[in-house]
Amino acid sequence: MQNIPFNKPYMTGRELWHIAQAHQNGHLSGDGSFTKKCHTWLEQSTGSKRALLTHSCTAALEMAALLAEVKEGDEVIMPSFTFVSTANAFVMRGAVPVFVDIRPDTLNIDETKIEAAITPRTKVILPVHYAGVACEMDTIMDIARRHNLIVVEDAAQGIFGTYKGRPLGSIGHMGAYSFHETKNIIAGEGGALLVNDPVFAERAEIIREKGTNRSQFFRGQVDKYTWVDIGSSYLPGEVIAAFLWAQLEEGRGIIDRRIAIWDQYHEALAPLEAAGKLRRPVVPEGCVHNAHMYYILLDSLEHRTQTIANLKRQQIQSVFHYVPLHSAPAGVRFSRTHGSMENTDKLSERLLRLPLWVGLDEHLPKVVAGLNEAV
Ligand SMILES: *Cc1c(COP(=O)(O)O)cnc(C)c1O
Fold first, then answer.
1. Which of 221, 249, 277 is the last residue of a domain?
2. Are residues 184 and 212 in the same domain?
3. What order of strands is seen across the sheet that includes strand 287-288?
4. Rounded CA gap, 215 and 49, in Å?
5. Which of ligand 1's atoms lies nearest the C-alpha of 180?
6. At 292, which CATH number?
7. Does residue 323 belong to any structural domain of this protein?
8. Whose CA is nearest to atom 5 of ligand 1?
9. Does residue 117 contact residue 77 with C-beta atoms inside 8 Å?
């Protein structure tokens, strides 16, 4: 019997062709012609002022932390139900993640709990668009405006998702994408920072280029380049950008194929939801998701553990997700919570992610049948 993996990276077939072209071009360091193509594509498709490829979403978040100028003891409000990098990028600058609870419907940060968590040290609000479903951005942007805070969107899972017609990652002052091989659009390891507020654009280029004004030099805006600020090396080489370009070119098609699978799951699992055996994902009005993930919520941790084991016996791989950061060892050391974490604690124990990858279509009946037996 064939094993059905949880994830299988999709490749368009053009990646190697573009990489050969990069090889031929002889420009292998960063910011060559493929990087420029990716930048232009990201800027045009999101409306962001400046898109910059990075090694990872983690690197893009680190850049955002530098640009937001968070200092020792500054606070960043974020969900605990997220990947470690959301917090770590800011902890590395001495900032303190302040976790607030998530909404039971989308598992995104509960926007109604943010304002009460603001203190004089608060500098940034960091919404994470879980599963490519948008946070309630109008409310979050309004709170940020009134309290003079910077909004950084962790849109690692969010490319091609929208909120009231606006691309995820393009709504806050900055947004971060991931092109890790587990995401929808991939480069192996890779990411991008969207700089939406032009105030940060020039410094973003400098921080990404080791603290030099090299980008301006290449555009002929200065006649020599030199050390002007703090910074690091956050730009990927052209081989990665060439790979990514093949994915972006076919991006819409990749997302549509994922959505077709997501829709089939959603329809096929409706009877199990009606029978009270599981809960399906909720996509609020105004949010268009990108089919990053299909998850279900079971009624308890025990039931989830049994379901994973049962599916595994049927050669179907399913996985749980984040251990809430506030209960992780480093979370206890570096961060604090504000208010109850009830939804975070309960829902993270009940969540189960099902296989979703381009090409899963032919195996989908088996996964659905397996789940009917397992739950
Ligand atoms: C994947 C992910 C990241 C990290 O992305 P990398 O590109 O691997 O650094 C950060 N935040 C969230 C929510 C993610 O899903």
1. 249
2. yes
3. 166-167, 162-163, 287-288
4. 16
5. 7
6. 3.90.1150.10
7. yes
8. 57
9. yes
370 pocket-lining for ligand 1 (C-beta < 6 Å) = no
For the chain, what is the domain count?
A: 2
Burial of 166 (0-12, 13-18, 19+ CB in 10 A): middle
Ligand 1 contacts CB of residue 85 (under 6 A): yes
Amino acid identity at 68: A
Query: In terms of domains, do 282 and 173 share one?
Result: no
Cα of 82 vs centre of ligand 1, distance in Å, is: 9
Boundary residue ending a domain (234, 249, 264): 249
Q: What's the CA gap between 305 and 345, in Å, rounded?
A: 16
- The mean per-residue pLDDT over the stretch 7-14 comes to 97
| pLDDT reading at 1 higher than 60 | no
List the structure tokens of 90.
């800011």
What span, in angstroms and rounded, lies between the C-alpha atoms of 135 and 51?
Answer: 21
Nearest to 49 by CA among 199, 152, 180: 199
For residues 74 and 66, the answer to whether their CB atoms sit within 8 Å is no
Taking only the tens place, the pLDDT of each residue in 211-244 is: 999 989 888 999 989 999 999 999 999 999 999 9
> CB atoms < 10 A from the CB of 92, how many?
14
Ligand 1 pocket test: pick from 180, 240, 319 the residue with the most ligand atoms within 8 Å of its Cβ.
180
Distance (Å) from CA 1 to ligand 1 centroid: 33
Which ligand 1 atom sits nearest the alpha carbon of residue 191? Answer: 7
pLDDT in tens, 141-174: 999 999 999 999 999 999 999 999 999 999 999 9
Which residue's CA is the nearest one to ligand 1's atom 14? Answer: 156
pLDDT tens, position by position, 336-363: 999 999 999 999 999 999 999 999 999 9
Q: How far is CA 193 from CA 53, 76, 302, 317, in A?
A: 6, 18, 39, 32
Structural domain for 20, as ranges: 15-249
Please state, in angstroms and rounded to a whole number, the distance separating the CA atoms of residues 325 and 229. Answer: 32
Ligand 1 midpoint to CA 368 (Å): 28
Residues 176 and 243 reside in one and the same domain: yes
Gap from CA of 178 to ligand 1 centroid (Å)? 6
